[in-house]
Structure formats: C-alpha cells, structure tokens
C-alpha cells in the first residue's frame, strides 16, 4: 500500500455522441498481479481498456503510471509506456514465420548504408522470447499459418512482450480454446506474473477468472460495481455485482400458460467444430431462449437450423410434425422459418436499397402478379409496417443504410412478418440497439409469440434471455448443458453457461 | 434596406447550394448528368463541324456502336449483381468464326448463327459455374477464358478473315427499317427488355440485392449463385449476338475484330454509373455512356483528330465521370 500501484486510472469518463458509456470509473493494475475485469456486454470493459491502450481518448479522469500522471493519446504512446493489448480477434500474418510475426514491429537490421534485415538476430531474439514464455519447442522458422489456433494465440502474446512490456491486457483470450489449451495459457500468464508483469484479464468464464486472478473488478452500466480480492470472495457475490438488481421494466410479461405444442423439433444438430449433437424444441406461442458464451456454439445454432452453415447435419428435424430437410436458406424460408442475423450490416440489410425493397425481398413472390412486381402493393404494405412498428423514416423509398440501428432492426423483423411465418430465429436482436428501441423490439417479439409464432431467441446476453424467454436452453462446448422449462434468472444462466464451459 | 437585401441574397445562396446537393442526391441525378454531358458534346461538335449534326451521321453513330451497346447492356446487370465478364468481346470474335466455319462446311447460315449463340451462352454459363461454383474471382476467371477463346479463334482460322457474303445475313448489319439501321433498333430493344427485367420483375430485384450484399441476400433465401450464373450466360449470348452483327456488317468473320473493344464496353458500363462493387447501376446510364463514347469518336474523327488522341479523350472522360459520380454518392450519404 505504501508503493503506488503500477497503473492507476481514476474518475474516468467517456461518452459517445452524448451517451455516457463510462462515468467516474476507477481501475488499477499492480506489478506481478492478475486483475480480472468483468461485466455484462456493454458494461464498458472494452471502452475502458481502449482508453488505457490509446485507442480512445478519455473525456475525464486521470491515469497514473508509476505514480506519475500520463497522457495516452495514441496506441504508440501506450506501447512506449509498456502497455500492450491482445485483441479479441487474432491478428496474425499467416504467410510469415513465427519470428517475423513476433518481431514485426521491431525488426533488427544490419548496419551499413543499406539496411538489410538481420535474419539471424531476428530469429534468436524471437527464440529467446519464446523461451521466456516456456515455449522452447516452438521453432521461430515455422510458417505461422501451419500452427493451430491456440499456438497462434500464444505467438501473439510473445509479440506483445517484445520490448519493455509491463501491463498486458487480454480480452477474452480463451474464447475459442479447449481446456488443455487454457491450462497452457495459464502457465504462460503465471510466468509473466513471476517476471513482474501486470495482467488485465477480461473474460465471461467465471471459473477461469477464479482460477487465475488475484483480484476482480466489476463494471456495470459504465460504473464501478465492486472490487474483490479473489481469495476472499465467491462466484455468487461476483455475479450479483455483474447483474445488479435492475430487472423488470423494459421486458414484457411472460407467456400466460405453458401448455404449448412443439413447432420445431431437432435432434443431433451437428456442425463440425461448433455443435456436437444438439437437441432442442421451439414451441408455438412461446419465446425459447438459447444462451451460451461466445465460442459455445450458440452463435451457430440458429443459422445451422436455417441451412446457412455448410456441413450441417441433424439426426432428425421437424416443423409442425412434418420432416424438414436442412439444405439452404431458400428451403428454410419455404418451410416457414425466418432468421434475423446478428451482424445486421453484413448479413441483414442491403444498405443501398430502399426500405421497401429490403422489406419485401424475402417474400417477393407474394408481391408479384404474373411476371411483374406490384409496386403499389409493396408501398402499401411497407407503409403499414412503418406505422405498426413506429419505424422512423421519411418514407418507404428512403435507403435503409441511412436509418438508425434500431430502425434497421425493425425492418429486418418486419420483413419476415409479411409471409406465412411459423418460426422466427432472432440472433442477438438488440446488439448495438439503444435502450428505447430495445424495449419496443422486446414488446414486438412478445407480440409475435402471442400471435402464435414460435420464437427462438439466441443471445449471449444472459439478462436479455432471463427477461424475455419463457424457457431456455443453455449451450457450452457445442452441447446442451441445461434446459429450463420456466423463466429463470440471469445468475442461473450465467453460471450454467460458464461453469460447464471447460467440462 | 441594403442590409436586408444582402442578407436575403446570402440566404438564397445557402438554399441554392442545399438545393444543388438535394438534386445530386436523387437516384436519377447520375443519368441526368450524363444526358447533360451528351447534349453539351453534341452542341460543341455541331459548332465545330458542319457534317456532325445530320440525321444520317447521328444514326451512323448509333449503328456503329450497336455491337458495343449489346455487350454493355448485358454486362450492366452482371456487374450490378457483383459479377464481371472480360471474355465477352472474345466471345464475339469466336461467334463470327463459328458462323463462318458452319457456312464453310455447308450448314445453313441461320443454323450456324444459332450454333454461335449456343456456344456463346455455353461459355457464359461456364464462366458462371467457375466463379460461383468454385468461388473463383470473376476478374481472373474471365481473363483466363478471354485468353483461351481469343486464342482458339485464331487457331481455328489460322488468324485469317473469312468472307461471309450472304445477302439475307448481311441485311442484319446494314438493313434499315423506316430508314433506321436495324442494328440500332435491335440494340434499343435489348436495352428496353433488360430495363424492364431489372425494374419490374423479381429477378431484377434479386440482381440488385445479390450485388448489394450477397451475404444478406443468401440469408433471405435469395438464389444469389443462380442469379449470377444466368447473367453470365446472358452476357455470353450477348457477346455472340455482337459477333454476328459485326460479321454481318463487315461481310466477313475476323477472329480479332471485336476483342479490342472490350475496354470500351467496360468503360461504358462504369461511365453509365454502375458500381464495380455491385448493387448500383442502370441500363439507361449505360446506353447514354455508349452514345457519348460513340459520339466522341465520331466527332473527333470528323474534326480530323488522330485516333491516338481519341483514346486519350476516352480515358479522360471516364476518369472525369467516375470522379463526379463519387461526389454524387457522397452527397447521398
């Protein structure tokens, strides 16, 4: 306590377009310690770390390194201070060697008038770094692309350690790793600790957090929600801090009765590398939640059923008791399934086309008389849905790319409701959607269920699933680990999703 | 008094520039800009050359450009849908060769033409199968087939031009209906049909959707691959038609008569406002661009400007048009 912390952030504030994302946040990292940074999606973890690593500027607050105030305006300045961030997604050069990947930012050169690459020193420096991390077995001359995913991850860590690295930020480092690979990662983190490196560890997997961290800091809605010494606390206390007690308001009531018929029945749904034989049902008039952490396979379930994932297989699949063959999205649409994709920009909207054209696209045959699309009917129907869903747009001819995220999402929802829909799959329906539009979308989803649709709600946001789903299937490691036939709370869902992840 | 006047003037200037931006943002603004450009060059050539603004000369521009127009008309929906066909002009060359060879072995001229159309369509479908089935880049695939086909045409003929002097066949190239050259009429009909398909049929909507966002289109159950393969086939047939018209016009099948015009075809499509990235474009823009490029050639020839300079002009016009189009797209966003 006498010595100042290696890095200390206090009073940090940040807003985007007038919306506060962080308010008066404090966070510290100490030499030779692992601090876990936890919080629900959108709690502000990534924003805080982007401020620390120089990717965002802060609106308020101070950052001290070694007790001295510092300004971190660019990633280069953060790197000079010894702050390194491992991104969530791999960023490697598959066609370069391991040594080149590690040393890329600090390539050693031979002296003389023409600076040429000193290959020998590059490889020996890289080998020395790998040895420091306990990876003597990895040759620096191997081409990066030939290595498996988790080894590439570890080479990225080696790259981050080049030069004077003092603080290492790891954002979900284990998202796609198997248990043995996680243990290898942990052994590396322990070596770094022993060398005096401060590690900031961001993860949703509480079991891992309790296995590796010395302390835990929790953010909720852009504010500090608790700090814990890992040895003196338990999972429940941390979960409570993550979730808080602000349930209710924005979610509609659950389905009145629960004696609904199955509308979809799937057994043995398999996607190599993602799903290992998943069984589930979706019921008419209900919202069936499907929850899991990133990498659990939950992101693949809906699109696999929809026929949008190559090499999908299933032991059996039925819709309203009739066999349904998983082939392609066209067949799924014909069978009465609709899907609203998580990546709206990439897979949802066609941004240069108008609202009307986006809305009618999946059901164009309905608007076709003979050979010709009946534009009058299209405009009338689009106008009706603009009114019904309160979509904020000039008219049906506005390009959809110019609408806000929430309004685009309403169009993506409405386009399926024009047809004879039986099942609607929603992937992360409120990602990147503000709270006001969120409430409206939740209300609409419940309304659709009440009209007799079967809804499959796929979400990595436990709170959303808890607030909306009448029944819930939890996935981890590509399998179903838990099925709740009644509404349940976020704490149960989160512990079910995280405790069994490594099993 | 003077102050209020100047304030009003400032206000008027402000609203004028806002109006200009609103006009630029209209979807048809690009086509209108091309039309104005077309009228401007017509006016310039009319002033500079007494031979330019005659009914006969204008018709001959249209007629001379008709084979390029055919290829550009079919290439437009293909590029809108996210494809590209560099082999179309080579297919035109091959098609003339097929007709000539058919006739030389005693096959009826019209049956030979049908054979040429089948060959052209087949090459197009092959391009489609390679790009969509094997997920190969269309630039590479059609560059490859372009080279194969133009090479084959030379192999089949030994590089020689073979005469095709059959009156009924040559009428295709030089005949007139009510004084209007038949190739021009045919080209305009093709443009009208493609416009109708793009604007009024579900298939047309799928063309724009497939090019605008193929991933999203697939997630809506739209047959993106089938749409593109059909368009490659149409492009091949259009190439074959262009080859037949050129052979009819020349009264001979020359294996490399059309190949050099590939860049004009692509330039016309881009100049017409079609995005090389897909999702955006119209055939009327392409038609205007074809006429502009033809008129530039014709006018400069009448003014005795060297054909070397004509290439320079064509390139400059293309760059200018693409630059203006970028400004327009930014005004929309």
Write the layout of secondary structure elements.
The complex is a heterodimer of chains A (503) and B (333).
Chain A: E1 7-16, E2 19-29, E3 34-38, H1 45-52, E4 60-65, E5 68-69, H2 75-80, E6 83-86, H3 98-103, H4 119-132, H5 149-160, E7 167-171, H6 179-194, E8 198-202, H7 206-212, E9 215-220, E10 223-229, H8 235-243, E11 262-271, E12 275-283, E13 287-291, H9 298-305, E14 316-319, E15 322-323, H10 329-334, E16 337-340, H11 344-348, H12 355-360, E17 368-369, E18 372-373, H13 375-388, H14 405-417, E19 423-427, H15 435-450, E20 454-459, H16 462-468, E21 471-476, E22 479-484, H17 490-499
Parallel strand pairs in A: 3-8, 3-9, 6-7, 7-8, 13-20, 13-21, 16-19, 19-20
Antiparallel strand pairs in A: 1-2, 1-4, 4-5, 9-10, 11-12, 11-14, 14-15, 17-18, 21-22
Chain B: H1 2-25, H2 29-48, H3 55-80, H4 88-104, H5 109-133, H6 138-157, E1 162-163, H7 167-174, E2 176-177, E3 180-181, H8 182-200, H9 202-212, H10 214-219, H11 224-250, E4 252-253, H12 262-271, H13 283-302, H14 307-332
Antiparallel strand pairs in B: 1-4, 2-3
Helix pairs in contact in B: 1-14, 2-13, 3-8, 3-9, 3-11, 3-12, 3-13, 4-5, 4-6, 4-11, 5-6, 5-11, 7-11, 8-9, 9-11, 12-13, 12-14, 13-14
Label the CATH architecture of chain B.
Orthogonal Bundle
Number of β-strand runs of chain A: 22
- CATH architectural grouping of the largest domain in chain A: 3-Layer(aba) Sandwich
The quaternary structure here is heterodimer
